[in-house]
Amino acid sequence: MSDKAYYLFEEIQTNRGIRIDKVKEKIKKLAIETPSWGYGDSGTRFKVFQKAGIPRNAFEKIDDAAMVHRLTGVCPSVAIHIPWDKVEDYGQLAEHAHHQGLRIGAVNPNLFQDNDYMLGSVCNVDPIVRKKALAHLLECVQVAKEVQSDNISLWLADGTNYPGQANLRQRKHWLYESLAELYSSLLPQMRLFIEYKFFEPAFYHTDLADWGMAFHLANQLGQQAQVLVDTGHHAQGTNVEHIVSYLLDEQKLGGFHFNSRKYADDDLIVGTMNPYELFLIFYQILDAEKDVDAGVRKTAENIAYMIDQSHVIEPKIPAMIRSVMNVQTQYAKALCIDFVKVRQAQLENDVLGAENAVREAFEFDVSPLLRVVREEMGVPVDPLQAYEASGYPKQILERGVGGASW
Ligand code: LRH
Ligand code: MN
């Protein structure tokens, strides 16, 4: 049963030459990985607020991720972070995920919370610390093998706080040395995502500060290494969708960490602060899926879409569901772009025609379409409302207060 609004939407889009059946198919196939740490207590340097019902261990984080998947139908995997999700038996964790209808997604090493890494991990001047950091990276590859994950997602906090504090070129060499060893330990089907960030926790230089450094390193390492774009990791005014188009054309875009921000790495709900940017990122990806180069098309079709947020004040599971719905909304709008019209306007240097042909898609209300897609997938047409009515919010309260941080 589809509503009148949907029929009207379908008619308008069909008259625009948009194949709604194809659009719905694409929306149903867009898999969005949620982060285990998004279900735990997290905060800022000022306070980590503890809430009731927070998962107490990795197994309960997977339970919450499974609830998000049951309600949205598009979150079949959960990323884990080591040691935040360290368990005795990783096979058992993968089995639990499987039992809950999920699989373990990207394995994220953590080289930013051990005391020894205060002045760097793989870039530390002390070879013993670099060796320890490399050992952790290799341990995470072993974890990935035990949970049948093909993705290692690496972010390094390494950097300095003052000019002169370190030899930046020397650190660049140590970084490559360790990552080359990590790369050589990967199984053939594995991918190494290299995540960059322009500052924080380092406040003078960061060893992997921008897309160019990550891109160069991924090229140096090899075909299995790609760049991960965290939408909160750029200086104000950075054209993120341009970076995305560049990395796509170089077949070096591996994945995203979706979140949004107003100022710095605020890790707010994706699509809240700057929904047009998210829409334009999807515009570049869908445009690349039509590229003459098969390698570029393949790269655009193999992107790992992951959410990376820490919900400081928001109720965790509703915040995650809202995030997934926001990603679907901007993806659905981008699927309504009339790419033939855009291309024609571009070839005619019709500046306003081209701009309009892209923006007009952003202005469509796609909520009737998403309701019908969810109906056809057999998931609730309003996942947030369904969550509130599910009884799960009450059920998890028995966990008490003081669950896992991250
Ligand atoms: C760093 C980062 C990284 C994660 C962490 C939780 O800011 O984006 O991806 O390891 O957040
Ligand atoms: Mn991230």
UniProtKB/TrEMBL annotation:
The keyword Isomerase applies. Keywords: Isomerase, Manganese, Metal-binding. One of its GO terms (molecular function) is L-rhamnose isomerase activity. Transmembrane segments: none annotated. InterPro entries: L-rhamnose_isomerase, Rhamnose_iso-rel, Xyl_isomerase-like_sf. Its EC number is 5.3.1.-, 5.3.1.14. It comes from the Bacteria. This is L-rhamnose isomerase/sugar isomerase. It comes from Alicyclobacillus tolerans.
